[in-house]
Amino acid sequence: MREIKIEHSFRLFEDYSSFDAELTTLFEAAKTATKSAYAPYSGFRVGAAVLLETGEIVIGNNQENAAYPSGLCAERVALFYTSARYPDAVIKALAITIDYSSVETDDIIPPCGGCRQVIAESEAKQTGSIRIFLLGRDQRVCQIDSIEQLLPLAFSREVLSTVKS
What we know:
Blueprint lengths: L10 E3 L7 H14 L11 E7 L4 E5 L12 H12 L5 E8 L14 H14 L4 E5 L5 E4 L12 H4 L5
Parallel strand pairs: 4-5
Antiparallel strand pairs: 1-6, 2-3, 2-4, 5-6
Helix pairs in contact: 2-3
């Protein structure tokens, strides 16, 4: 038997006043996106904002459906729209937050597994890392330099390339 140890580090900031104007604008866009989330069943409103290399920001929010599997998370809405509208764009950063007025936690909430996999595919598509910022209550921020830190054993095109046809 062999043991493999995976270690990760994240940067935590007490508020985002130390970030530059471009990222502060990105954070505000993610927060604003939560306001138009469609979450009548869970009340869990999530916003995401994608920062492109051009400086443009694309937002998304969660969209629920009475048939639960038919809904979509904010991260996927933002990333899929970015890919559809700007197929060759390079994504510099992704900011994700929730409407903290609707939850009873001060924890910073990470993306779900499905969204982690979509972020991994976005990194693979552009062959480069995407900085991920998780925004917490009171402007706290967790900075993650690549999805590999949240999803170290991602399902990938390399796995699919091993399939015999």
